[in-house]
Amino acid sequence: MILETTRLRLRPLAETDLDALAAIASDPQVMVHVGDGRPLSRAATALWITNAAASLRLSEVGSRGVTLKTCGSLIGWVGLIPTPAPNRLEIIYGFARPYWGQGFATEAAGAVLEAAALGEVDATIDPENAASLHVLRKLGFAELAMETDEYGLPTLRLRRPAQQVAS
After folding, report:
1. pLDDT tens string 92-138
2. pTM beyond 0.85, yes or no
């Protein structure tokens, strides 16, 4: 399913996204707060695209490419991924540096959360990532606890409560 916002189109990643996504995922400044903090290789990015596309074909879980509606350029990713806790999902996102600070993360993540109509959703971020903390707070996430992630790095866990459906 393709999601649209005022400025963005959120769609499954495709092989044709490899050059653009590899450029984003190989940028050390973009990846410093993602996963183990290291840039991804082109091969790892290609595998990510394959796995994310396959996952989205089966469910709403996986990464989507974020493109500008005006020109179709891939500017980042957003998605929901499973957490180690059973039946719990986590929101993820990342954007090329020229698109930071323009509200794209809030817009894209908000669209994914709204479309999925889920219960509680988690987020984990580097506690030094003030920009992501700001985005998540705007989306209704509250801080839960400091933890250590699978790489042994400190991480802040946040949670967004289940949204009430208007009757």
Report:
1. 999 999 999 999 999 999 999 988 877 889 999 999 999 999 999 99
2. yes
Long-range contacts, 51-59 (Cβ 8 Å, 24+): 52/12, 52/13, 52/77, 52/79, 53/12, 53/13, 53/14, 56/12, 57/12
**Length of the chain as a residue count:** 167
Query: Which pair of tokens denotes residue 25?
Result: 């995922």
Report yes or no: 66 and 76 within 8 Å, Cβ to Cβ. Answer: yes
What is the CA angle 155-110-62, rounded to 5? 65
**Is the Cβ–Cβ distance between 110 and 103 less than 8 Å?**
no
For the stretch 52-105, pLDDT in tens is 999 988 887 899 999 999 999 999 999 999 887 777 899 999 999 999 999 999
Query: Rounded to an integer, what distance in angstroms lies between the CA atom of residue 125 and that of residue 129?
Result: 7
